[in-house]
Design a protein that fits this description.
With 208 residues, this protein is α/β, with parallel strands linked by helices. It is built from 7 helices and 6 strands. It is 34% helix and 15% strand.
């Protein structure tokens, strides 16, 4: 069982927290993490690209000249893909890029990344995030006190408006709730700053 310090926003140790090795000492193939990241990024794609086929482009649908007797090639419509400004053949249409990833794989990838963060001492646990007012200056002071100067992922148990408003203008900081935590954000940020309750909730979910 791993044990981590629980600090307050003044960087003082106020408690100890014992973590389950099944979650925070987990090893698996790196391919598992790659699959989780690929599925996450695929799910972020909008898939709203579209081209106009011959049914959608503007222009009359009438036959431009009679079928025979003109000496010209037969033609049916001005909107034919063969004509300039005609419809596009087999062009991209709106689609869903989401990839299905089994729950067991998702949780395994999450446990693997969290275990790596813990081994490299990249997790700081806070007893609770109490921000009296939404001020970026105050949050910067907290980061400085905690000696965090890299990309930081901040996680709280539930939506914390003052915390979110205090950190949203900082390009190196992202704030999410425990239910919104994902493998991509964990990998994309060097340090994890998380509340005690959020960490316990994540551990409980990953133990299932």
């Amino acid at each position: 069982m791993a044990e981590v310090d629980v600090k307050n926003l003044k960087n003082e140790v106020v408690d100890k927290l014992t973590l389950d090795d099944a979650v925070f000492d987990y090893t698996a193939s790196e391919t598992l993490v790659w699959e989780a990241v690929r599925a996450y990024l695929a799910g972020q794609r909008k898939g709203t690209h579209a081209t106009k086929n011959r049914a959608l482009v503007s222009g009359a649908g009438r036959k431009l000249w009679r079928q025979k007797g003109t000496g010209r090639a037969r033609v049916g419509s001005l909107r034919s893909p063969l004509w300039r400004k005609g419809g596009t053949v087999f062009g991209p249409q709106p689609r869903d890029y989401a990839q299905a990833l089994p729950k067991k794989k998702r949780r395994g990838a999450m446990k693997m990344v969290l275990s790596d963060k813990l081994r490299n001492q990249k997790i700081t646990v806070i007893d609770e995030f109490v921000m009296d007012t939404p001020r970026t200056k105050d949050f910067l002071a907290v980061l400085k006190t905690l000696d965090l100067d890299s990309k930081v992922l901040v996680v709280d148990e539930k939506e914390n408006r003052n915390l979110y408003l205090s950190s949203r203008n900082l390009p190196s900081v992202k704030t999410v709730t425990s239910s919104g935590l994902n493998v991509y954000d964990l990998l994309n940020h060097e340090h994890l700053l998380i509340s005690k309750q959020a960490l316990l909730s994540i551990q409980e979910v990953l133990q299932k």
